[in-house]
């Protein structure tokens, strides 16, 4: 006879306490893995209890969605199948190999011809004279090495046999006094906050390569470097506040310090500016500001939502500027309540709701996805032709406006004539689009208004990658260090700057950052370095 199942109610806090007691037995690796398993169980339990979570949605949470392209989401009738409207008409030609110009970070070693110089007699025909070609031939040779390299200088020593004084050879020119130079800090920051490689994983790799680098030392290096280059981060926030369009969104994050100091353990007195003690969530907010042809990425981790972090950024906006365009999804926590903004909602977010129910309502979803595919095709044309914001708005109004108007009319017919159940997945998707229609179609009427929030969602992948690899931040200060480096690294990626060289130069010229941080932005630092280098070498 099968024994009766006993239900035991237990909170995550109690489970965490049991886990902390077993930490010494499990070891750090086992502790981290079991912690992650418990958090996954808690997240799935909450999702199952949410009445709006479908099995399809739960499957996507666990395994991810393979694609959201229209021709993959809905099956087309025979003879009507074709490529997605957003795909290019033909595959870009190319052999897929990287040329010498792609290796911008490689060391360049000039090799002179040993027996020829300009003006010499041709070794072949014996009559002509050779001249030097402007473009040299190139050989690319790639070798493996540890991410953080090391050199051991063995300085020769002598001792006097009479007075016993020791004489040690001087270190070569250019060898600094610090054990870890600026390139070490830059590489650790790029691996940790740019590519999601945890400190302990890098420690293991370095140990295997014979160059030990403890995780605690890595943290100390990036912590001290963050303090050194913080003026640039502050200036980046100030310049982002002046942007014409600001995208924002957030993702969940874990900070152990905030979890252990939960609401029930906080001090009774409330400091000025503190958030509500009932709030327990921790988030990383991503903000991408665009304007003057530049894109700036910012990250903020803590208890504040994306809208509250955007409010803090806009507090530094110049008073003479008009209200910015804000792009976000329709969640109220993404809105800023203290500053005026032209709010635009994400079309891709609304489209995704139809993707999620496409298997149950294929005909209706095919119609919606096909209409939106044509709108996105118009957006691709506007980008390809490099239209100005005004030209793009007029183009969308003429080409996409009739499509969206027809789609709105179709939504109204489906809902008012009860052709679709309002509480079904399809009905909820339609209701969402109709409720936020004005903000979803802002790109038709406001020059510069984006069509979606994909720019910010791509930026948040930096934080998600860190969360997948490192699982959490230990302290709030550690989270702030991560925010700083993620902001600088991703901004470099957005403006095609070399983030490794950029971080190196910031550390090398740390004394100059305080005086003029605006000259050390990712898009302006190279002319500044050139000017200072030429000035230092001037007679």
Features:
539 residues, alpha/beta, 5-stranded mixed sheet, two-stranded antiparallel sheet
Description:
With about 550 residues, the chain is α/β, with parallel strands linked by helices. Helices cover about 45% and strands about 5% of the residues. It has 20 helices and 7 strands. It has helices at about 10-20, 25-50, 55-65, 70-75, 180-195, 200-210, 215-240, 255-260, 305-315, 345-355, 360-385, 390-400, 400-415, 425-435, 435-440, 455-470, 475-495, 500-510, 510-515, 525-535; strands at about 155-160, 165-170, 245-250, 285-290, 295-300, 325-330, 340-345. It has a 5-stranded mixed β-sheet, sandwiched between helices.
Structural class: alpha/beta
How many strand elements? Answer: 7
Distance between the termini: 96 Å
Detail the poorly predicted runs.
Answer: 77-88, 263-274
Mean residue pLDDT? 85
Largest sheet: 5 strands, mixed
Shape: globular
For the largest sheet, list the strands in their spatial order. 5-4-3-6-7
């Amino acid at each position: 006879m099968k024994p009766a199942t006993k239900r035991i109610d237990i909170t995550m806090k109690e489970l965490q306490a049991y886990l902390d007691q077993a930490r010494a037995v499990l070891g750090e690796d086992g502790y981290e893995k079991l912690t992650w398993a418990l958090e996954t169980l808690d997240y799935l339990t909450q999702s199952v209890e949410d009445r709006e979570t479908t099995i399809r949605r739960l499957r996507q949470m666990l395994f991810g969605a393979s694609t959201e392209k229209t021709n993959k989401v809905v099956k087309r009738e025979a003879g009507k199948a074709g490529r997605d409207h957003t795909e290019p008409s033909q595959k870009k030609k190319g052999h897929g190999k990287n040329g010498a110009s792609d290796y911008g970070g490689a060391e360049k070693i000039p090799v002179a011809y040993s027996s020829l110089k300009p003006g010499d007699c041709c070794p072949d025909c014996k009559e002509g004279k050779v001249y030097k070609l402007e473009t040299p031939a190139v050989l690319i040779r790639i070798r493996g090495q540890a991410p953080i390299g090391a050199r051991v200088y063995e300085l020769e020593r002598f001792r006097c046999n009479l007075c016993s004084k020791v004489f040690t050879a001087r270190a070569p020119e250019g060898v600094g006094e610090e054990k870890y130079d600026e390139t070490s800090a830059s590489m650790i920051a790029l691996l940790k906050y740019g590519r999601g490689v945890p400190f302990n994983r890098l420690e293991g790799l370095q140990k295997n390569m014979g160059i030990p680098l403890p995780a605690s030392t890595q943290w100390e290096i990036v912590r001290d470097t963050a303090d050194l280059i913080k003026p640039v981060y502050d200036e980046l926030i100030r310049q982002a506040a002046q942007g014409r369009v600001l995208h924002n969104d957030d993702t969940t994050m874990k900070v152990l310090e905030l979890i252990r100091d939960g609401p029930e353990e906080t001090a009774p007195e409330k400091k000025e500016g503190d958030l509500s003690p009932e709030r327990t969530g921790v988030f990383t907010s991503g903000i991408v500001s665009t304007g003057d042809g530049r894109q700036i990425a910012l990250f903020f981790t803590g208890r504040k939502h994306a809208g509250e972090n955007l409010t803090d950024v806009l507090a530094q906006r110049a008073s003479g500027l008009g209200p910015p365009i804000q792009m976000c999804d329709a969640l109220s926590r993404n809105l800023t309540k203290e500053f005026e903004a032209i709010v635009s909602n994400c079309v891709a977010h609304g489209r995704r709701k139809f993707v999620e129910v496409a298997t149950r309502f294929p005909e209706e979803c095919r119609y919606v996805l096909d209409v939106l595919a044509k709108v996105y095709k118009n957006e691709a044309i506007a980008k390809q032709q490099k239209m100005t914001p005004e030209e793009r708005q007029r183009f969308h109004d003429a080409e996409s406006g009739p499509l969206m108007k027809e789609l709105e009319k179709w939504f109204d017919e489906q809902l008012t004539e009860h052709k679709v159940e309002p509480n079904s997945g399809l009905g909820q998707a339609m209701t969402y689009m109709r409720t936020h229609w004005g903000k979803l179609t802002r790109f038709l009427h406001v020059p510069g208004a984006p069509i979606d929030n994909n720019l910010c969602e791509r930026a948040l992948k930096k934080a998600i990658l860190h969360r997948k690899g490192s699982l959490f931040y230990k302290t709030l200060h550690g989270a702030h260090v991560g925010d700083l480096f993620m902001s600088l690294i991703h901004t470099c990626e957005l403006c095609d700057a070399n983030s490794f060289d950029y971080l190196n130069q910031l550390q090398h010229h740390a004394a100059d950052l305080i005086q003029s941080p605006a000259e050390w932005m990712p898009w302006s630092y190279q002319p500044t370095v050139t000017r200072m280098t030429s000035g230092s070498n001037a007679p």
